[in-house]
């Protein structure tokens, strides 16, 4: 993507701003055309066929949303990137916006930011990979000892946080150190067991104004996701309540199904775990990321085994680019000692991932008694099982801090 020479069409009336854009782009060999927002742009764009439009959606002289709407109706619509200051892009996402860059631009990073948007890449990052409870110490130093927290960054600046175990504190430290504010993000909570939510009170951005967070999760009996989070921060259990969250997060209740969020397609599935637990699939352009923990895949000889349930999960993760999946137990024997605890063994996970044609499978939610050496053995076992099947699925065991671009 970076080697391609693009034709950029800038809609901007400030000569100094246009000059800075052109300087940043032309030094990388790109062609740049400039258009005054006071003039009708759609006809010119249809004539020139640029690859990408750079437009300030806040200009009073140009109806950028209407232009975006009309451009996305073309047989081969150009990419559309908003370069605006403190602009609410919620409507623009629904119309097909490909990404945005906040003003003022940084010439040192401008070209890279644009290339990342045009590439359509997702960045997966791991902050906590264990289940049940954190296990710090020398024996977990390579893979890390924090519980569930995975983030997904998109080239269009969207940000999703999956679960909020103790790994969320590491993410919080990172955001504060990098001064990533104001921040907008979505939390997708699988379920409210402590190892998935007990990092929330320690997430510093919650206590800062001008940040915005949407928290998604499912009901548990009569309790909705907001009440569940409030419960663990009741003064009986924790000295600080949610009333201190200056960001005033918004809560959303989910069931199994599908919905669109900006230009993402989100699917959810009810997993086999005590209480109610959701798995998530995020579709962005032609790539899919799945987060499936905690989930119990029964062995085929179990009297409660139901192939229809397995097929439902296979269809849910079908052809996914990257799947993070509960694989708590290395052997079938280990699993059978803890039936109905809500977790899976490697053999069943491998079977499902292979049949679903998953591109990359990440082993996740490791048992607290599994240290680095045991996780190495689990990964070795998983790879051997895939090789024996002639599978094309790649298998990894992520470590805290690992990054994967898809």
Describe the structure.
Helices cover 27% and strands 24% of the residues. The protein contains 12 helices and 19 strands. The strands form 3 sheets. A 7-stranded mixed beta sheet has the order 11-10-9-8-7-6-19. Strands 12-13-14-15-16-17-18 form a 7-stranded mixed beta sheet, covered by helices on one side. α11 packs across α12 (372-389). The radius of gyration is 23 Å and the shape is globular. The model has no long low-confidence stretch (mean pLDDT 93).
Total DSSP helices: 12
Distance between the termini: 13 Å
With strands numbered from the N-terminus, the spatial order across the biggest sheet is 11-10-9-8-7-6-19
Shape: globular
Assign the structural class, choosing from mainly alpha, mainly beta, alpha/beta, alpha+beta, or little secondary structure: alpha/beta
Biggest sheet, in brief? 7 strands, mixed
- Structural Rg: 23 Å
Fraction of helical residues:
25-40%
Strand residue percentage:
15-25%
**Mean pLDDT across all residues, rounded?**
93
Taking pLDDT < 50 over at least 5 consecutive residues as the criterion, the unreliable ranges are none
The count of β-strands is: 19
């Amino acid at each position: 993507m970076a080697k391609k020479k693009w034709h950029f069409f800038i809609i901007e009336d400030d000569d100094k701003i246009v000059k800075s854009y052109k300087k940043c782009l032309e030094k990388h060999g790109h062609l740049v055309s400039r258009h005054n927002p006071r003039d009708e742009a759609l006809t010119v764009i249809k004539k020139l066929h640029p690859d990408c439009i750079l437009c300030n959606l806040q200009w009073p002289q140009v109806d950028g949303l209407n232009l975006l709407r009309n451009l996305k109706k073309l047989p081969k619509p150009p990419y559309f990137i908003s370069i605006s200051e403190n602009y609410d892009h919620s409507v623009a996402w629904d119309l097909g916006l490909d990404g945005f860059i906040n003003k003022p631009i940084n010439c040192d990073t401008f070209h890279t930011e644009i290339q990342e948007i045009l590439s359509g890449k997702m960045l997966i990052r791991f902050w906590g990979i264990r289940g049940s409870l954190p296990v710090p110490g020398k024996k977990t130093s390579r893979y890390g000892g924090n519980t569930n927290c995975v983030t997904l960054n998109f080239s269009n600046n969207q940000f999703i946080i999956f679960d909020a175990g103790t790994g969320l504190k590491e993410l919080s430290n990172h955001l504060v150190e990098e001064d990533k504010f104001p921040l907008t993000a979505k939390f997708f909570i699988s379920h409210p067991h402590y190892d998935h939510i007990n990092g929330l009170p320690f997430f510093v951005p919650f206590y800062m104004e001008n940040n915005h967070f949407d928290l998604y999760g499912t009901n548990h009996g009569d309790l909705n996701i907001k009440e569940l989070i409030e419960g663990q921060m009741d003064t009986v259990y924790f000295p600080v309540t949610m009333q201190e969250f200056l960001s005033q997060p918004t809560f959303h209740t989910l069931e199994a199904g599908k919905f669109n969020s900006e230009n993402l397609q989100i699917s959810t599935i009810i997993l086999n775990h005590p209480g109610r637990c959701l798995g998530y699939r995020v579709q962005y352009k032609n790539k899919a990321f799945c987060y499936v923990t905690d989930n119990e895949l029964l062995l085929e000889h179990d009297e409660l085994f139901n192939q229809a349930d397995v097929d439902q999960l296979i269809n849910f993760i079908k052809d996914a680019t990257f799947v993070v999946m509960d694989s708590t137990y290395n052997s079938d024997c280990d699993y059978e000692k803890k039936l109905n605890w809500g977790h899976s063994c490697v053999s069943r996970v491998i079977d499902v991932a292979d049949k679903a044609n998953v591109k990359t499978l990440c082993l996740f939610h490791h048992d607290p008694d599994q240290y680095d050496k045991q996780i190495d053995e689990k990964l070795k076992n998983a790879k051997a099982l895939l090789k024996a099947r002639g599978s094309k699925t790649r298998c990894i065991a992520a470590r805290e801090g690992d990054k994967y671009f898809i």
